[in-house]
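Thread title: Can someone regenerate the structure for this chain?

I was given the following input by a collaborator and told the matching structure tokens would be attached. They weren't. Posting the sequence so someone can regenerate them.
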Amino acid sequence: MRHLNGHRKLGRTSSHRLALLKNLSISLVEHGKIETTVEKAKELRSYVEKLITTAKKGDSNAHRAIFASLQNKEATKKLLNEVAPAYASRNGGYTRIIRTRIRRGDAATMAYIELV
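Best answer:
Regenerated them for you:
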């Protein structure tokens, strides 16, 4: 039974999974919209929305927490200075997942995840 298991394993070790989510988050913040598999997009959604909620506070502690998660100066600055103020009046739901196609090589369902 999968009680209290709150994340998808994505066929990776925990360190590989965290690196994957970090890199996908950096790409999403920099580009605003990326294409990935539906499972990765669903897992990324909770990861990024927690970062945006933290960034909305805007203090130095939030800056440190976001940099610790992303480890990228440019993405951290953009998240704090551009992305988070745009969602100041919003209480969640910062991302949207749109299913696009089935990937030809392995028949994985692909989707766009974008910032609303």
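The chain has one domain: 14-115.
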